[in-house]
Specification:
Length: 245
């Protein structure tokens, strides 16, 4: 309780509402009567002219300045800094493109190693890239002749087969055309026969009507003859007609 009594004897903290950076009440003195920490001010906006070179201080580089003793070039238009490239080390092996060093070595190798030019010429003749055919032996020539004979026989056989197939196709076409013609002829014949049958049926109907008419006349004449005989028989003998025999 004594400790709290000691704190109570101090006056309340004071506030300053006129600070525009914070926008709220900021204590100027805390409970222990200590001054507040300094408020960081806003950084000033520096206008940079890109047309003029600019010297950067050492502390603005990301790398320590002691490691790069070479001079730094002026910035480019965009404001970047370009460092000079380091020199290429010459401790490695010599480049193979140097003719002055390679030529004597090659000449020395050619002098020490004996080269058989005739063997190289024969090998180049056998394996020529210009399309030349190497000389073949008798066995190879016989084999090629046999192969050519077999191929000729096969070609002749194929030609004969092709000719036979073409002839058979032509015959089949001719047979088809002949059957088509026969079918057309039979169709026309059936049509004519049908027409003739219809005509004959009509004629038969006409002849039947004529025959029925003649039969009716015959019956009428027979009836008339029977009546005439009866009439003659009923007449007296004097009036009966005399028929010449």
């Amino acid at each position: 309780m004594e400790i709290f009594a000691d704190f109570a004897q101090y006056p309340p903290p004071m506030t300053d509402t006129r600070n525009p950076l914070v926008g709220a009440a900021v204590p100027t003195v805390n409970a222990y009567h200590c001054p507040p920490p300094p408020v960081a001010s806003e950084p000033e906006m520096i206008q940079y002219d890109y047309t003029k070179p600019r010297d950067y201080p050492k502390h603005q580089y990301l790398f320590p300045y002691s490691q790069y003793p070479s001079k730094v070039s002026s910035p480019t238009i965009k404001g970047t800094v370009q460092a000079k490239a380091e020199p290429i080390s010459t401790t490695g092996p010599p480049s193979p493109g140097c003719k002055s060093e390679i030529k004597p070595k090659v000449e020395q190798i050619l002098r020490n190693d004996h080269v058989d030019l005739e063997a190289l010429i024969e090998a180049s003749k056998k394996t020529s890239r210009r399309g030349r055919k190497r000389k073949s032996s008798e066995e190879e020539e016989l084999q090629t002749l046999e192969c050519e004979a077999e191929t000729d026989a096969y070609r002749k056989k194929r030609i004969r087969n092709n000719i036979a197939v073409r002839k058979s196709r032509e015959r089949a076409k001719l047979r088809l055309e002949g059957t088509q013609k026969k079918l057309i002829e039979l169709h026309t014949e059936t049509q004519t026969q049908k027409e003739l049958i219809i005509h004959m049926q009509q004629q038969c109907m006409e002849w039947e009507t004529k025959a029925s008419r003649a039969e009716r006349r015959l019956e009428e004449t027979l009836k008339f003859n029977v009546r005439m005989r009866q009439f003659i028989n009923n007449l007296p003998t004097e009036m009966q007609p005399c028929f010449a025999v």
